[in-house]
Amino acid sequence: xKKKRIRAICCLAAVTLILVMGVGxxxxxxxxxxxxxxxxxxxxxxxxxxxxxxxxxRDWTKHISIGNTGDQDCxxxxxxxxxxxxxxxxxxxxxxxxxxxxxxxYWYYDRILAPQETTEELLVVLNRNKVEAGMDAEEKAxxxxxxxxxxxxxxxxDSAGNPYADWNLAVSGGETRNADGSxxxx
Length: 186
What we know:
Helix content is 22%, strand content 34%. The chain contains two helices and eleven strands; from the N terminus they run H-E-E-E-E-E-E-E-H-E-E-E-E. It has helices spanning 2-34, 128-134, and strands spanning 51-58, 61-68, 74-82, 90-94, 100-103, 106-109, 122-126, 146-157, 163-165, 170-172, 175-177. The termini are far apart. The model is unreliable at 177-183 (pLDDT under 50).
């Protein structure tokens, strides 16, 4: 009889221990799934656009072309500066199809520039005959520079999926932002 009693107490203790461990295991499992962390490294490539200006000078003509050296499509535009004395003597032309258009002081390339693609040339000629005819006998031609500033913007898409250029985007701290500071979506 004593053996039966000891056996019953041991079985009751074992069942109690199993129940207590089962209730505690749920909390322990919740702790480990909530606060678990993993290590390692994954390289994330967002892809950035980069361009390179080609401006060759031959026979008083500056040959301007822009190449997309990045890995995303982009739109490009250029602005040409010269000294005030020579600005009125600059003449613009294009080789091949006419994809450059003048608008608000910038020359816009009207096609999307794919990676590793280059624009057609925009030619800026300083008409020497007009320069010499426009100067007084006391004035003389001086050294000058024709400066080309090129800009690019990634191709954005509207809600219908149509591509457009947003020239108000700015890169700040590695993020592309709209002019008002909000995050830009491509």
